[in-house]
Automatic annotation (TrEMBL):
Residues 42-423 form the FAD dependent oxidoreductase domain. Signal peptide: none annotated. SUPFAM superfamilies: alpha/beta-Hydrolases, FAD/NAD(P)-binding domain. The lineage of its organism: Eukaryota, Fungi, Dikarya, Ascomycota, Pezizomycotina. It comes from Aspergillus parasiticus (strain ATCC 56775 / NRRL 5862 / SRRC 143 / SU-1). This is FAD dependent oxidoreductase. Residues 479-672 form the AB hydrolase-1 domain. Gene3D superfamilies: alpha/beta hydrolase, D-Amino Acid Oxidase, subunit A, domain 2, FAD/NAD(P)-binding domain. One of its GO terms (biological process) is methionine biosynthetic process.
């Protein structure tokens, strides 16, 4: 289409040509729900055509049966209802099953192109169901569309497109039928036809569809429709948006541009992306007393020269014809159609083209006397890449767009509007006051999903999902790098993989990637879990132990909804370790055209019996704590002892024997070094020393003996005390003089080993930043993980291998030789099963947690992989002139959610 200068502000003209479709005005044609404009509205939709009315319809329908009140929705229309492109089109519901699909395959890949075709085809059934459910009469008819070619070369090109789809095994191609040259004229009834392809399509009276749809919601107290109210500007501030019109202003928190060809008048940044283009259409009738063959099909008719710009045609139930297009007759007169918003006049080179069109085109119509009864023009919104703009307006929170349908909106808009309505309902939340754990992550955002059905069949409502982003999403939405956190992690990538996050030279390069981390369901750090309100309703209280079982697949499905909301069209790569690695594998099943590459680290294709058993032991630790109370405990008095014990048990699986031996051996903690164990302990008086040693580490115990043989504690006194060395090498005198009863904040010198001290420290650190019910929920989530579930044949001898073989992305598998939880053998299994994989070993004695400690190795392997499989992104100049560095960043603080420590952990 070439470059295009920004257009001046413009509005629909006041005196448009009258299309046939508007010859029977509906009672709501000039609807004004109230005499005056509302002062404010939750949502303002600009445009009352196909897009605007469909969005409003879905916004209301989506909340039926929900506890949440319906939002106030105001629809503003510059002229009458449905007076724009939809009220002026050809009445076709014609999905594109082959014409542009090969182009989309080259541009976006097979899966994405097939999704487009199936999405358009699904509108046929969606319309059938909608019209039956709402009892709307709009002369809807399901038929076959014949794409007819009058030029042999053009027909041959179409055949090759069709055969390419068949060769790829695309199911929707089964609906297409090819008719060769020898039969084309007889089948189509068109003179000189050289070939034709037919496929399922529909015809309808579009104006009656939109007005019928509006009539189903117009009586709702939530809806306010204002015809003859053009929007002249939208002004935004910190509190929302002000919609200005000649009749006054409306304040709103959310505005939707359903203004199609007129969009750039309000959003100048779209002036080159959505260009108004004028087209022509007419209604052809047959004089009384004349007859003509009834045309049972709808048509797309090519040109004799094979050029684009033919005609589209439908026959109405009364035998009359709607036909339009003929762009080849005016394509060279850009002043007549390109960047034109005037639909009050006809296109001069074409205004007489259809006068005898039926007689010269169709066999049997020569003596029909067919003539043009009405002729009109309409303004379409042509998209620069033929793809519509549906979603959030970039860099403008609370503003949404549904426009740029390239003259092909009928098989796209209704279901696209449904998705956009859900997106509009995905409220951004500023905080989560009921959940104290979410406050530990200071830079995360929240989005609320109106409803989400889990794999179990349970539906959650108003589902919060927490996430963080770093870097900038590219204009094409294809540079997203999704990071998946481990069991006890959060969306704060900087906390647990901070050294990998930065600019050029770091794997998570925010100068090239849009780095996103989303919190998993069940986690206490912001997404729906035991510590959030049921269905987002404070009156229902917290979920607590009633939070339903979620799966890894639930996580990636709800995360994709958020990614779509953020405008991500393609994920460059997904990276995750441990539980995050499970999510990474599941992401791959969205297909290689959506996810380009994956990096699963120290994970498994299905949760092993070994891991399931460790999870059970950890849950039993929590269950056995008397304060657990079947999960109905308070934040003020949680089962900290049980949760701490579960964490200690987990840590043994995260490290290796050699790791503990080399770091701790049989060392005893040195009390002269700073201890990070929280809380205070009372020092036993010498007579109680044996009792204290026996109960050392028992968090629920008493501070003094209570048995009948217990001696009375003497009065505390200052003295230098000797304590039994746990290595039984005699007593040990500590250099520090202490009070045997301990003053406030003072700690008892240790009678235990450094390894014990380290575990206790980690347990006590953990209970202050995690919830016991959430721990149970997450470990149960892990138990459900199995990539072969519903993906492998029931009779398969190796279902996991069969499921892994379906992963098409380039894959880097990172494993740790010393990992005793997710063994290196499991990493070999993943790499052997995925066709395009490479396996790398992280050298470390630290066990499973090495992927959170060996930053240099992890960074190097991922960088090498990205440079191999993502050269288009990695070769780009870094944003903001960032300079490449060699190696990872320095760890500057101890991790809250990971395992990295700045302090000398051998001091425990």
């Amino acid at each position: 289409m070439g470059t295009h200068q920004p257009l001046p502000s413009f509005l629909p003209v006041d005196n448009p040509t009258r299309p046939f479709w508007r010859t029977e005005p509906h009672p709501l044609d000039e609807l004004r729900s109230t005499e005056a404009l509302p002062d404010q509205s939750d949502v303002v939709i600009i445009g009352a055509g196909y897009s605007g009315v469909s969005i409003a319809y879905h916004l209301l329908k989506h909340l039926e049966g929900h506890d949440k009140p319906h939002p106030a929705i105001t629809i503003l229309e510059a002229r009458q209802i449905c007076s724009g492109a939809t009220g002026r089109n050809g009445g076709h519901l014609r999905p594109d099953l082959y014409d542009r699909i090969p182009t989309y395959i080259k541009r976006y890949g097979v899966d994405a192109a097939a999704e487009v075709a199936n999405f358009e085809l699904s509108h046929i059934k969606a319309f059938k169901n909608l019209l039956a459910e709402e009892n709307i009469d709009c002369e809807f008819n399901i038929t076959r569309c014949l794409s007819v070619y009058l030029d042999e070369a053009a027909g041959e090109k179409a055949r090759k497109k069709y055969e390419e789809l068949v060769s790829r095994g695309l199911a929707f191609a089964d609906d297409i039928h090819y008719t060769p040259p020898k039969n084309a004229e007889g089948v189509s009834g068109i003179k000189g036809a050289k070939a034709c392809l037919s496929y399922t399509s529909g015809t309808l009276w579009p104006y009656k569809l939109i007005l019928g749809l509006l009539s189903k919601i117009a009586d709702s107290p939530a809806i306010n429709v204002q015809a003859f109210t053009p929007v002249t500007s939208v002004v935004s501030d910190n509190s929302g948006h002000i919609i200005h019109t000649p009749r006054g202003s409306v304040r709103t928190s959310k505005v939707v541009y359903a203004s199609n060809a007129y969009t750039s008048g309000l959003l100048p940044e779209y002036s080159a992306s959505i260009v108004p283009c004028r087209g022509i259409c007419c209604h052809i009738g047959i004089p009384e007393g004349k007859t003509a063959p009834f045309l049972p099909y709808s048509y797309g008719i090519g040109t004799k020269t094979g050029e684009s710009g033919g005609s589209y045609l439908i026959s109405r139930p009364d035998g009359s014809i709607i036909v339009g297009g003929a762009q080849r007759t005016f394509i060279d007169r850009k002043d007549q159609w390109y960047a034109v918003i005037d639909d009050s006049t006809l296109i001069e080179p074409t205004k007489d083209y259809y006068n005898d069109f039926m007689q010269r085109t169709f066999k049997g119509w020569e003596d029909s006397g067919a003539y043009v009864k009405e002729i009109w023009t309409g303004i379409m919104g042509y998209s620069y890449d033929t793809s519509p703009h549906v979603g959030e307006v970039p860099d403008k929170p609370g503003q949404y767009i549904c426009a740029g349908f390239d003259g092909h909106g009928m098989p796209v808009i209704f279901l696209a509007a449904k998705e956009l309505a859900e997106m509009i309902h995905h409220e951004r939340l500023d905080s989560q006051p009921e959940n104290p754990f979410s406050n530990l992550i200071t830079d995360q955002l929240f989005v609320s999903i109106p409803s989400f059905t889990l794999e179990s069949g349970v539906t959650l409502y108003n589902v919060p999902v927490a996430y963080t982003t770093r870097g900038r999403l590219s204009e094409t939405g294809d540079n997203a790098l999704v990071i998946c956190h481990a069991l006890s992690g959060s969306a704060d990538v900087a906390d647990w993989w901070g050294p990998l996050l930065g600019g050029p030279g770091q794997a998570f390069d925010t100068s090239r990637f849009f780095v996103i981390c989303l919190n998993s369901l069940g986690s206490p750090y912001g997404s729906a879990s035991a510590v959030t309100y049921k269905d987002g309703n404070p009156e229902k209280g917290l979920y607590g132990p009633e939070f339903p079982l979620t799966t890894v697949r639930d996580d990636v499905r709800i995360h994709k909804i958020v990614l779509d909301y953020l405008g991500v069209r393609q994920i460059a790569a997904v990276v995750g370790g441990s539980m995050g690695g499970m999510l990474t594998l599941e992401y791959a099943y969205f297909g290689k055209d959506y996810v380009r590459a994956i990096v699963p680290i120290a994970t498994s294709p299905r949760h092993s019996a070994w891991c399931i058993s460790w999870g059970e032991a950890q849950r039993q630790s929590i269950y056995s704590d008397p304060k657990y109370e079947d999960g109905y405990y308070s934040f003020d008095d949680p089962p900290a002892t049980g949760l701490g014990a579960a964490r200690m048990s987990a840590l043994l699986t995260y490290r290796s024997r050699n790791s503990f031996e080399s770091r701790f051996g049989r060392n005893v903690p040195d009390p002269t070094k700073q201890q990070n164990i929280k809380g205070t302990e009372k020092l036993p008086t010498p007579p109680n020393e044996h009792w204290a040693i026996h109960n050392d580490g028992h968090k629920g115990g008493r501070s003094t003996p209570s048995g009948r043989n217990s001696p009375t504690s003497p009065t505390p006194q200052e003295t230098e005390v000797q304590y039994m060395d746990p290595q039984f090498s005699g007593t040990k005198t500590f250099s520090k003089t202490i009070d045997t009863a301990l003053k406030s904040g003072q700690k008892r010198p240790p009678t235990y080993f450094s390894a014990q001290s380290y575990l206790r420290y980690q347990g006590e650190k953990f209970v202050k930043r995690f919830d016991a019910n959430c721990y149970i929920a997450i470990t149960r989530k892990l138990d459900t993980h199995d990539v072969s579930r519903q993906r492998a044949s029931p009779t398969s001898s190796d279902p996991v291998r069969e499921a892994l073989a379906q992963i098409q992305q380039p894959t880097l598998v990172l494993g740790i030789e010393s990992d005793g939880l997710f063994t290196f053998e499991e990493q070999k299994e993943i790499a052997a099963g995925i066709p395009d994989s490479r396996l790398k070993r992280i050298e470390s004695p630290e066990g499973h947690d090495a992927f959170l400690l060996q930053f240099e190795q992890v960074n190097r392997y991922i960088l090498e992989f990205f440079r191999e499989v993502l050269p288009d992104i990695m070769s780009k100049a870094p944003a903001d002139g960032a300079v490449e560095v060699d190696g990872v960043n320095k760890l500057t603080k101890s991790s809250t959610f990971g395992e990295a420590e700045v302090e000398d952990i051998t001091a425990w």
